[in-house]
């Protein structure tokens, strides 16, 4: 049986709280899943696992600039708080079965590099790592 593959050009939308940072981002990685809890008992011939707590992480690469509404100001406001909400859609803002929206709540911005790559002749970028919280997937338009 043949399978059909669909290819699309990555063009996600990214919101940090109420701030649309889509135009500031050049890369976004969302990793969702669950902690694995071992439930192996005597007599089992292999490891058995069950689902634990949700696991969420978001890595953003953003162009570095400063001032009100900038990437640096938005990230600095979120640094160290465990209440940040991120909303990410892979291909624009309209949710559908082929473009799910992921809402990640109560995330903490663990680290970011306010002076990321500062190399002569290149655009400076910030790397930001969010972790924790919970996620929800929405496909309703």
Unreliable stretches (pLDDT < 50, length at least 5) are none
Give the structural class. Answer: mainly beta
- Helix count, DSSP H or I runs of 4 or more residues: 1
The chain-level mean pLDDT equals 88
Largest sheet at a glance? 8 strands, antiparallel
Q: For the terminal residues, how far apart are their CA atoms?
A: 32 Å
The helix/strand series, from N terminus to C terminus, equals EEEEHEEEE
Q: Estimate the strand proportion.
A: over 45%
State the total count of DSSP E strands: 8
**Count of discrete structural domains:** 1
Backbone CA Rg? 18 Å
Query: Which word captures the global form?
Result: globular
Fraction of helical residues: under 10%
Assembly type: single chain
Structural write-up:
- The protein is mainly beta and 141 residues long.
- It has one domain.
- Helix content is 6%, strand content 46%.
- It has one helix and eight strands, in the order ββββαββββ.
- Strands 1, 2, 3, 4, 5, 6, 7 and 8 form an eight-stranded antiparallel beta sheet that branches.
- The protein is globular, with a radius of gyration of 18 Å.
- The protein starts with 12 loop residues before the first strand and ends with a strand.
- The model has no long low-confidence stretch (mean pLDDT 88).
Question: What is the topological layout?
Answer:
Elements: E1 13-16, E2 19-20, E3 25-38, E4 49-63, H1 71-78, E5 84-89, E6 101-112, E7 125-131, E8 134-138
Antiparallel strand pairs: 1-2, 1-5, 3-4, 4-7, 5-6, 6-7, 6-8
Which tags fit this structure?
141 residues; mainly beta; eight-stranded antiparallel sheet; 1 helix; 8 strands; globular
């Amino acid at each position: 049986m043949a399978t059909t593959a669909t290819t699309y050009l990555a063009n996600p939308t990214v919101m940090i709280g109420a701030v649309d940072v889509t135009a500031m981002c050049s890369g976004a990685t969302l990793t969702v899943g669950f902690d694995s809890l071992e439930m192996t008992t005597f007599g089992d011939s292999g490891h058995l696992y069950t689902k634990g707590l949700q696991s969420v992480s978001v890595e953003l690469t953003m162009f570095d600039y400063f001032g009100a509404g900038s990437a640096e100001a938005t990230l600095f406001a979120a640094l160290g708080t465990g209440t940040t909400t991120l909303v990410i859609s892979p291909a624009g803002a309209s949710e559908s079965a082929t473009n799910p929206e992921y809402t990640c709540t109560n995330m903490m911005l663990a680290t970011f590099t306010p002076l990321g790559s500062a190399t002569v002749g290149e655009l400076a970028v910030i790397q930001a790592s969010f972790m924790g919280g919970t996620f929800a997937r929405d496909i309703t338009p």
